[in-house]
Specification:
about 850 residues, alpha/beta, 2 domains, 8-stranded parallel sheet, two-stranded antiparallel sheet, Adenosine deaminase, hydrolase, A/AMP_deam_AS
């Protein structure tokens, strides 16, 4: 059993459904006119070329000819519909009355297909192929009203996975344990699409505001994302496309359900449908009410009408309707690509553009749909047993109250089996205090073994923000963000004091977003204050995306030490500690550009780790020389490695108190402080007494503007500063520190494949951490790992898919089902054993 890559035929089909070059051709050609195969081939070729630039043209050409030949052999079937059928045959299979992805193709499905296009048309094509012969239109009408599936997930969860009896048996008994999922970023693009079709102006309002944001970096990021999809895409153009797609859908649903008169005059072209909304185009009636756009519209509705449209088109093809259908799908995927990170968009900066554009915001004001999504498709048991949902705390009590009421109110509705429209017998209480009391009462009556609904814990994550030295930077590094963190921490703790029952739900803290923007030390003081206040579970995103492999290792090392993570605390991602040094070196350019101050800290971390490796004395001596030189250039004085180490280990101190202690006669007793912050002030005074010189040098590092300028100077460094063996030894030294501290690493396969240097799931570093044959390296210590899905909406997946991706990767490397599950099951089960949940709630 080997993993199979995507075929060129499927690449062409994906391009036909998503390329802006294809959309341009569709736009300029009237619907009643067949597309020129020559022009369509050119558009497909140009759209496909960047994807497979290293393949010779004849590979594309032969696949294109095969597609055209197959279409010609099927009477009246258009080339697009033939491509949909070919793709569904390649990736999907019917088993036990349901559709699944072929296990050998699941990696390519996740990476290459649904990272670019919605999978719904492919599912519909697979279903259409097994439908009975279509009946005459007059008989078709008797099949209405259309009754969609009853469970929320069956209606609205568009993701599909493989089917393996051994895995299904295990998950049926054990369930999945989610340890790292951001609640915002979890809504699937298909559900956002239906909302956008219904109210395009409302759904794109925030996108338009972001596009024109006063924050230049945010606006640039949003425009870069949009223009990478289509150079002509803008808020105005997106709105026009949504209006046109909404109108197209009405015609297509009418055609699919047999309510379209043969004499009706169809629209002329796409431009006509993109006219101002006030110029209403006559649309066919009656379209079945169940398939009209409404708040109840679901992915199952889309799947249903598309499969019936395809079935009819295969037998009674209409050039105009086929062209309208093609246009609808390309418009859908233009929008889809604004919400889902493609395999060609590597790195956290690319990922963050999807969080900036605000297109998910309207849908994600309601949290109930996401809880049903994590539940899965079974009615009476949740696929997920334990769920940790992450959210960002606010800087006022009122905003936190609103957020927590929305989240826990949605969870209450989920527990009471309400659907996303709020239909149910036990609505959410109006006040947060009453809601918390009723939730507590619910779980007092619920068995800890009850799996009818998943158990929820919340982890609040502070946001890393970039810092730019300059006139407005403040008196020390990350001045503004440090003050914001203290404010947010105080407000969070005030919430816990105001509503003590929240402690059963807010179970831990985290710091998320781009690790290149902010280092672990700026969160240290707030982490300790939260811990003293009873938030004793901690995790931290680290080693996810990094300028240099040493930078990623350093960030993990700093997080362990400066945040004092241990005894069940966790690190999110940790890619730098697991990725194959050989693979990283092969995928990166020979020279990397990095800030001098960052490189100094990277060398410091490397020097400290190398000193723990008896065989690395020569490498440690070389690093010591380079580190001394680099530190001397930054500080403009001689600085030994041990002195720099002593200075930088004080970075965990609260810098506001450091400034007060060094620049004034201040002491903790002068200004009244809460007990929680009094301890932070005392730490600074202890350092001032015991290590005054080191504290002054730390303050110089933090506050001296000339030093800032020197430390921010860019320089080129070798990616191969060390050889593969030395990088491997550094990773192993860090893994030993993780194991010694009893810290768990949260592994997030889809997220890492998108954000790191991997081309497929079979390269993922968790295989090494599972100690899979061929991946584990001699000298690797055992570390504990748990599983998470991160942002399943942005990666078009779910936790079930993450489990299957790793299982498939193990099977693809030759392990049988029992051996693969034996390696993978402990990762899932660590999520249960080391969960942050309140034990009183099960």
């Amino acid at each position: 059993m080997r993993e199979q890559p995507i075929s060129v035929l499927a690449q062409i089909g994906t391009t036909l459904l998503s390329s802006n070059k294809v959309l341009a051709l569709l736009r300029q050609t009237p619907f009643h006119q067949p597309l020129s195969l020559r022009e369509l081939r050119e558009a497909a070729y140009l759209g496909h070329l960047p994807w497979s630039a290293r393949l010779p043209d004849h590979v594309f050409e032969h696949s294109w000819q095969l597609l055209a030949q197959q279409a010609a052999n099927r009477d009246r079937a258009c080339l697009l519909i033939n491509a949909l059928q070919a793709m569904s045959n390649e990736f999907l299979e019917h088993r036990h009355g349901a559709l699944y992805v072929r296990q050998q193709k699941f990696g390519a499905w996740q990476q290459s297909v649904v990272s670019r296009i919605s999978g719904l048309p492919l599912l519909a094509a697979a279903k259409a192929s097994v439908l009975p012969h279509p009946q005459p239109a007059i008989e078709m009408r008797t099949q209405w009203p259309w009754e969609p599936p009853q469970s929320w997930a069956s209606k609205n969860l568009p993701v599909v996975s493989p089917y393996d009896p051994f895995v299904e048996d295990y998950l049926g008994r054990e369930g999945l344990h989610e340890t790292h999922m951001h609640l915002n970023g979890s809504t699937h693009a298909e559900n956002c699409w239906l909302r956008a079709l219904r109210t395009p102006k409302q759904e794109t309002k925030d996108f338009s505001l972001k596009w024109n944001s006063l924050s230049a970096s945010d606006a640039v990021a949003v425009r870069e994302l949009a223009r990478s999809i289509d150079p002509d895409l803008s808020p105005v153009e997106l709105h026009r496309q949504l209006v046109a797609a909404s109108r197209l859908r009405k015609w297509l649903v009418a055609a699919a359900t047999g309510t379209l008169s043969a004499e009706v005059k169809l629209p002329h072209d796409l431009i006509e449908l993109m006219d101002d909304e006030s110029l209403q185009k006559e649309v066919p009636e009656p379209v079945p009410a169940q398939l009209q756009l409404s708040a109840n519209s679901s992915a199952a509705d889309e799947l249903y009408w598309i499969q019936h449209f395809l079935r009819r088109s295969m037998n009674h093809s209409s050039v105009a309707l086929d062209r309208m259908f093609h246009t609808y799908l390309v418009l859908q995927n233009q929008y889809y690509r604004l919400l889902v990170q493609s395999e060609e968009q590597f790195g956290f900066d690319q990922f963050q553009k999807f969080t900036y554009n605000q297109l998910r915001e309207p849908a994600e004001e309601d949290y109930l749909p996401r809880f049903w999504a994590m539940h899965g498709k079974a009615n009476n048991v949740s696929r997920t047993t334990y769920l940790e949902g992450r959210l960002s705390p606010k800087n006022t009590l009122r905003k936190n109250h609103k957020l927590l009421k929305a989240v826990l109110g949605g969870y209450w509705c989920y527990l009471n089996n309400q659907d996303p429209q709020g239909r149910g017998v036990n609505p959410s209480p109006g006040k947060l205090g009453e809601l918390l009391e009723r939730l507590e009462e619910h779980f007092r009556k619920t068995s800890p073994l009850d799996r009818s609904h998943h158990r929820l814990a919340l982890v609040v994550h502070f946001i890393k923000k970039s810092w730019t030295p300059g006139r407005k930077a403040g008196p020390y590094r990350f001045y503004k963000q440090r003050l914001e963190l203290e404010l947010t921490t105080n407000v969070l703790l005030e919430c816990l004091a105001r509503w003590p029952r929240l402690r059963s739900w807010i179970r831990g803290i985290d710091a998320a977003a781009n690790e290149l923007h902010a280092p672990p030390e700026i969160f240290s003081s707030c982490y300790r204050v939260c811990q003293r206040a009873g938030l004793t579970h901690r995790t931290y995103h680290a080693g996810e995306d990094f300028a240099h492999l040493l930078s990623g290792l350093r960030t993990i090392y700093d997080a362990l030490e400066l945040l004092d993570l241990r005894d069940g605390d966790r690190i999110g991602h940790g890619t730098a500690m697991g990725i194959s040094p050989k693979l990283w070196l092969e995928r990166m350019p020979g020279q990397l550009v990095i800030k001098k101050g960052e490189w100094m800290l990277d060398l410091l971390a490397a020097w400290r780790l190398l000193r723990t490796i008896p065989s690395a004395a020569v490498a440690a001596a070389r690093v010591a020389d380079d580190l001394t030189k680099c530190a001397g250039e930054v500080f403009r004085r001689e600085m030994s490695c041990t002195s720099l180490e002593a200075v930088m280990e004080l970075r965990h101190l609260n810098i506001r108190f450091v400034q007060a202690a060094l620049e004034t006669d201040w002491s903790p007793g002068i200004t009244p402080l809460s007990d929680l912050w009094q301890s932070e002030a005392q730490r600074v005074m202890d350092a001032k007494r015991s290590r005054p010189q080191h504290l002054k040098l730390l303050w110089e590092w933090l506050s001296d503007r000339d030093l800032w300028e020197r430390s921010e100077t860019l320089q080129s460094v070798d990616a191969a500063y060390f050889d593969e063996a030395t990088y491997l030894h550094l990773q192993q030294a860090l893994m030993r520190e993780v194991a010694h501290r009893n810290v768990i690493i949260e592994t997030l396969p889809s997220s890492n494949v998108r954000i790191s240097q991997y081309n497929s799931f079979s390269e993922h570093h968790s295989l090494r951490w599972m100690r899979a044959p061929g991946f584990v390296q001699e000298g690797d210590p055992e570390i504990m790992v748990s599983l998470g899905s991160d942002d399943p909406g942005i990666f078009a997946g779910d936790l079930n898919g993450e489990f299957y991706q790793l299982y498939g990767a193990l099977r693809n490397h030759g392990l049988n089902d029992r051996a693969a599950l034996a390696l993978l099951a402990p990762i899932n089960e660590r999520g249960r054993a080391y969960r942050f949940h309140d034990p009183l709630l099960g």
